[in-house]
Amino acid sequence: MNNALASTEATPLRQLLKRGTAASHRRLEAQLRLLEPDLDARRYRRVLELLYGFYSPVERGLNGFVATVPLPFPLRARAAKLEDDLTTLGLSRAEIARLPPCADTPGLSCSEEFAGCLYVLEGACLGGQVVAPVLRRRLGVANGTGASFFAGDEERTLARWAAVLAWLEGLARTGTPQGPIVAAASATFEALARWVEQQEPSWASRASHGRSERLRP
User: Is 176 in a helix, a strand, or coil?
Assistant: First the structure.
């Protein structure tokens, strides 16, 4: 087992984060439906628009707070990748600038909130490695041709994720309370889910119906 893979194995804080965010994570996935067979180019572009509206203000908040939280790795500008993908898919820079930003972003007033939010954004990069091949097969988009956000760090993703997890565990070892980190991670998922529901109410309705159908015997 290589060092990067070994570093991503379940640790106490990671287990808490996975359990604490599972419900809100499932809610968001059901809304976006990126792995569903009915995904088409129009819906995919709309997903990118909504993600851009969320990531732009959240990343500004992270960048404004990072000076107080030493990181062993640089923050990634994922909103810039979303902007590149949207221009590739036909939006002008002016149209992207007019996209509404999410005002109900997760709080970033302490290191625990910063850590929980960063866990979600970096975890999305790991999930993007599952989504990217599906987008390539179904829509013909890839890194540089409309799916740069989901392609992310590509083969370097696992090593970066290991570094993020090691940093989080380091916080726990030095006495940073774990409960607020988990709460902040869940709040980040919930904020994004609310944003999607606000902008596309029908997606939330379909997601709820889909969950009900899957629960039937």
Answer: coil
